[in-house]
């Protein structure tokens, strides 16, 4: 079944890559550059090739105001891996970046299947993988972005927690914390599970305490390193993010965007779709809570939702931030498991088709940051 799960993911996303390649050729663009050098990918490739230190200034930033964009906003694990792989893979940094993202996406699919299989059974595990591969923003899983890597680390860390493997979960949490700001969610899952074991189950295992201390170390280390480099050890990283136009506003910005859509304001299609997807994510989160989902998955998903909903700036990127939040799909997979196999396949195929079209729109038509 594990091989079948990987096959399902490869089939859904492989078809998506083919559609994107054909669309890129039709638009007169190089498919490899569309996949490997779009938006944030350019920053990761630059860090991999030249290290940190690049700053870009905008009189009218993408977030709506003037901004000073520093590459310190990007966490180091993915660029480091790109540089290492490029030393042995011919073709330079771009093929290495794509290879890492694709391998990570496959590893994430396997981890997601194992979690779905453990909680709901093998058929639900397959459906969970298919649904995740067919999400509207799943084109990102085949780009040179960090979401595939974070999803892989998160899935296997959560699987380790479900098995009680504290050392592996904590180690993966450290790596997740070096991948993206939202890697903090993996550390939160480890800490929540460990504290539950200590306070409720009265665990005395030394590995539990070690997990609590170790899990946030990667995330905290990078924030501290940026702070030291910028002269403000505790607040430097957050200053970098504010200059990008990103800050935590408790969802005020998201509510303003939703109001524009609901009142018929003139907004891009991506903005409308983002509002719909965020509303769907909120509903699925309620269903996940009602389904008695294991604590580590709830903590992980909850922190991802909190960061995504509460953060301001780059509103249309929020569904991408939620790509690693695959536990949200567990209630849907559970319902589809009870459907006839043909119906489940048709629903997944239909969602995949919509995802392919929306992926073309995001990368070749839309003028909003992905």
Provide the fold topology.
Layout: H1 2-26, H2 31-36, H3 40-50, E1 55-58, E2 67-70, H4 77-86, H5 93-120, H6 122-133, H7 147-163, H8 166-177, H9 184-199, H10 206-214, H11 217-230, H12 236-244, E3 247-248, H13 252-262, H14 269-290, H15 295-310, E4 311-312, H16 318-321, H17 330-337, H18 341-365
Antiparallel strand pairs: 1-2, 3-4
Helix pairs in contact: 1-5, 1-6, 1-18, 3-4, 4-5, 5-6, 5-7, 6-17, 6-18, 7-8, 7-9, 8-9, 8-10, 8-11, 9-10, 9-15, 14-15
Protein name: Glycosyltransferase RgtA/B/C/D-like domain-containing protein
GO biological process, one term: GPI anchor biosynthetic process
Transmembrane segments: 93-113, 125-146, 166-195, 207-228, 269-290, 297-315, 321-337, 344-364
Key features of this structure:
single chain; 370 residues; mainly alpha; two-stranded antiparallel ribbon; two-stranded antiparallel sheet; 18 helices; globular
C-alpha termini separation = 33 Å
Helix content: 55-70%
- Strands of the biggest beta sheet: in what spatial order? 1-2
Can you give the mean pLDDT? 93
**What shape does the CA trace take?**
globular
Give the number of helices.
18
User: Class by helix and strand content?
Assistant: mainly alpha
Rg: 20 Å
Low-confidence stretches: 61-65
What is the string of SSEs from the N terminus onward?
HHHEEHHHHHHHHHEHHHEHHH
Number of β-strand runs: 4
Number of domains: 1
In terms of DSSP E residues, the strand content is under 5%
The main sheet comes to: 2 strands, antiparallel
Organism: Streptomyces subrutilus
Membrane topology: Multi-pass membrane protein
Keywords: Endoplasmic reticulum, Glycosyltransferase, GPI-anchor biosynthesis, Membrane, Transferase, Transmembrane, Transmembrane helix
Protein name: Glycosyltransferase RgtA/B/C/D-like domain-containing protein
């Amino acid at each position: 079944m594990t091989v079948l799960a990987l096959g399902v993911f490869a089939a859904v996303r492989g078809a998506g890559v083919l559609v994107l390649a054909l669309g890129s050729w039709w638009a007169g663009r190089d498919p490899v550059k569309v996949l490997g050098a779009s938006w944030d990918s350019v920053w990761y490739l630059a860090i991999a090739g030249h290290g940190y230190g690049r700053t870009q200034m905008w009189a009218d930033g993408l977030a709506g105001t003037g901004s000073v964009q520093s590459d310190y906003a990007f966490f180091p694990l993915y660029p480091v891996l790109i540089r290492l792989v490029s030393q042995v893979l011919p073709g330079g940094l771009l093929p290495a970046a794509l290879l890492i993202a694709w391998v990570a996406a496959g590893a994430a699919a396997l981890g997601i299947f194992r979690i779905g299989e453990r909680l709901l059974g093998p058929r639900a595990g397959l459906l969970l993988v298919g649904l995740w591969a067919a999400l509207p923003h799943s084109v990102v899983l085949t780009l040179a972005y960090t979401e595939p890597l974070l999803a892989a680390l998160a899935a296997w860390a959560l699987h380790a927690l479900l098995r009680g493997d504290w050392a592996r979960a904590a180690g993966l949490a450290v790596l997740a914390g070096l991948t993206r700001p939202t890697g903090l969610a993996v550390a939160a899952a480890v800490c929540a599970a460990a504290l539950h074991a200590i306070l409720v189950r009265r665990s005395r295992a030394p590995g539990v305490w070690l997990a609590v201390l170790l899990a946030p170390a990667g995330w905290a280390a990078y924030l501290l390193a940026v702070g030291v480099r910028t002269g403000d050890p505790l607040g430097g990283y957050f200053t970098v993010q504010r200059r990008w136009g990103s800050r935590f506003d408790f969802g005020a910005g998201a509510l303003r965007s939703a109001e524009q859509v609901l009142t018929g304001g003139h907004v891009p299609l991506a903005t409308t779709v983002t509002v719909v997807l965020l509303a769907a994510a909120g509903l699925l989160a309620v269903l996940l809570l009602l389904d008695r989902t294991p604590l580590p998955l709830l903590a992980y998903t909850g922190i991802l939702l909190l960061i995504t909903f509460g953060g301001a700036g780059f509103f249309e990127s929020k569904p991408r931030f939620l790509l690693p939040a695959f536990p949200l799909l567990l209630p849907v997979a559970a319902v589809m498991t009870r459907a006839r196999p043909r119906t489940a396949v048709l629903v997944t195929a239909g969602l995949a088709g919509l995802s392919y079209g929306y992926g073309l729109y995001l990368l070749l038509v839309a003028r909003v940051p992905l």
